[in-house]
Amino acid sequence: MKKTSKIMSLVLAGAMVLSMSACGGSTAGTAADTTAADTAAATAAEAAETSKEDAGEAKETSAQAADGTVYKIGVLQLVQHTALDAANQGFIAALDDAGIAYEVDQQNASGDQSACQTVASKFANDKKDLILAIATPAAQAVAGAVSDAPVLVTAVTDPAESGLVDTNEKPGGNVTGTSDLTPVKEQVELLQKILPDAKKVGILYCSAESNSEIQAQMAKEAIEAAGMTSQDFTVSSSNEIQTVVQSMVGKVDAIYAPTDNTIAAGMTTVGMVAGDNKLPVICGESGMVENGGLATYGIDYYQLGYMTGQQAVRILTEGASPADMPIEYLPAEKCGLTVNEETASTLGIDVSNLK
Known about the structure:
Distance between the termini: 6 Å
InterPro entries: ABC_transpt-TYRBP-like (IPR007487), Peripla_BP_I (IPR028082)
Signal peptide: 1-24
Organism: [Clostridium] citroniae WAL-19142
Strand content: 15-25%
Shape: elongated
Protein name: ABC transporter substrate-binding protein
Helix content: 40-55%
Keywords: Signal
CATH superfamily of the largest domain: Response regulator
Structural class: alpha/beta
Order of helices and strands: EEHHEHEHEHEEHEHEHEHHEHEHEEH
Number of domains: 2
């Protein structure tokens, strides 16, 4: 395993966390200033100046000068945490690599569903060329508000089950995107490998997130198939995390936390309480491990976002229709093992056998 600041990770290497605006704020992202299109010379001059501060901006200004098209893109991210930030960054990187010019309106709902609705309505009124919604509640808000523009979703476990598309194979409307369905069975197998004596597993997730309920059911089935028993422990908001994790002490031998946005955003609290009580946490994705979990076998959210950005390019530049674009999944080789050595040491668990 490869060590990075006490954390062994085979995924999410080199992903930088995006700086996100608060809900209601707007940023140009890496977009070019539209006033720079007055003349080619002015554009080139501005690109040269901008490149001193942000190479991405210079690239997009140059692209604008070449064909005159600047796409208006809205991005609604449910909450700021490592996995969703990485998906956001991957999406933007794919746009940059395609060489298209765009203005991106970055919005973060800070985990507030009503804020998601407000931003979704704003995007609908702004007549964006394309909208990206990151995480299920954000995707549901945008899909409900926008019918006349392409909508891409990412970090959504099952778009069809969440009511976003007709089927994952043929979406049928203006919404498509990528799924972050994690290898739950393999994660439970990892739990058993690390904790062979575990008998009772607590499944920790937010009851308000449909994607988490789907994963919790998958985990329950995998845990029972492995000869263990499970118990659900749910929160309705981040304010309940500490109390709920404390309630697990003495009732379970380990915690399984799927790719739940509320839990991921509060993973530092989960890790603190669990660590103090010697409760190992197997997580749905590597960012949760880095923030206090023990281990995961999960997907690369940067690559997931990049794949979504490639879909955006096909829609914007090739005329592809979301209705005919199947929901895409990362291939198995994009999954990898992440172990937090510091957490393992705190828990007194030997992870040297994990390769």
